[in-house]
Amino acid sequence: MSSSSSVFGFYATADCLRMVWLNDSAASSDYSKLEIVTGPPDFRFLLDDIPHFIDYLPASLKAYSNPLHNHSAYSEIEQYFVDVDDVVAQNIIVEKKTQRGRYFRLAGPRQKVVFEPDEVHACIVTCGGLCPGLNTVIREIVWGLHHMYGVHKIVGIEGGYKGFYTKNTIQLTPKFVNNIHKRGGTILGTSRGGHSTSKIVDSIQEKGINQIYILGGDGTQKGAAAIYEEIRKRGLKVSIVGIPKTIDNDIPVIDKSFGFDTAVQEAQRAIDAAHVEAESNENGIGLVKLMGRNSGFIAMHASLASRDVDCCLIPESPFYLEGKGGLFEYIEHCLEEQGHMVIVIAEGAGQELISKNTNQLDASGNKLHEDVGSWISQQINDYFKEKRKLPINLKYIDPTYMIRAVPSIASDNIFCTLLAHSAIHGAMAGYTGFTVGPVNGKHAYIPFHQITERQNKVEITDRMWARLLSSTNQPTFLKSGQVGVDQNNNTSQETS
């Protein structure tokens, strides 16, 4: 083990650790690795580690005392610094016979850093769709770098990944970003897909940038992984850090993504309006379409929080319209029992019933969906008019872009601050090629491949979905044999 390794405390002592490099394609593509850590007899765990500059830069890489040692807010709090061997468990509930679990590095400031403040030239870029909290994360990265670490060279890239080589940069100072968290959207602009990794890295070298903070969803994080690989091939001291962003909350491993709480709260306004409309009209039906391309978390949580929803339809739980146990029969039952009904449907639900362009993709590589809200509105109207001869009053509300564009609420603002600070601490310490997020309540550093290989989905065999069914009193709409437990998808959002 090199002397530089011990300087950084990057590896544990030789008697309790050995390194195993992964050979599978997913892991080797982004240089991730597993460390098998052993301790007391019969105890060991897998550390799903992230890259560090020491992995590919010369052993002469210098380490410096963390500036926070001299910071008035932190210098007296020794516990503020994270031990290099502190880890976070991916799963906190395990079988009795389990001897090995998977862990990630705990996020937070280290005793040593690899950047001096004057050396840092940081940049921030936002990609993909809008999400509440984007401006808050931008603000907190700028403020954190400036006020915690004394970094003064920070720029924003305009227009997403393409902005690295097609547009100008914006100088970001604490004064400039001071109030941006009060606005929705992103002050840097955004775009989807269509970028050149080599051109981006060329621009990074030309501008002298050495810390890059990338805000975006799974497609954006795949792009970040590709940028990291090119950076590593060129042997550059440039830290690539991802901050996962998706309003759908469909990024795996992490507890939730920023903006989700805001989206659920804002969705309540649409549901409340739908309930008022439905309750005020004879045989009134209020239909609300919410975000959820492949995952129904917003629809499920908003329905549970509302208490006014009679039916929630999500992509993970198939449904059918006609026949015994179908949606039409349940709508008729609700109208007979209470005279009105509120339906919430996620944008990706029911696509198998209507989708025609199954192979078409958007700029981010996502499958294009039909407008299920308009389609199901027409189906319900036609059924009750033509087959049941029952007059109904259906009001359809689609608040999608209103929800995406609002500023984040208090809980998300705090969450965004923690994400930004975790990202900064990791970059300053020399980690790279990783994303940040809460895992079982603790912020951790996660390899890119862990959040890009699959999507987080609602488990319809989980108790959270059972609570939803109990709250709405809706049927499952499932036929025999349709429910199966995905043993590889450990993504339950609530298990107690």
From TrEMBL:
Pathway: Carbohydrate degradation; glycolysis; D-glyceraldehyde 3-phosphate and glycerone phosphate from D-glucose: step 3/4. Belongs to the phosphofructokinase type A (PFKA) family. PPi-dependent PFK group II subfamily. Atypical ATP-dependent clade 'X' sub-subfamily. Residues 123-425 form the Phosphofructokinase domain. Gene3D superfamilies: 3.40.50.450. Mg(2+) binds at residue 218. Allosterically activated by AMP. Its cofactor is Mg(2+). Homotetramer. It comes from Citrullus colocynthis. This is ATP-dependent 6-phosphofructokinase. The active site is at residue 248. The record marks 219 as: Important for substrate specificity. SUPFAM superfamilies: Phosphofructokinase (SSF53784). The keyword Ribonucleoprotein does not apply. It is found in: Cytoplasm. Keywords: Allosteric enzyme, ATP-binding, Cytoplasm, Glycolysis, Kinase, Magnesium, Metal-binding, Nucleotide-binding, Transferase. InterPro entries: ATP_PFK, PFKA, Phosphofructokinase_dom, PKF_sf, PyroP-dep_PFK_TP0108. Substrate binds at residues 246-248, 291-293, 347, 401-404.
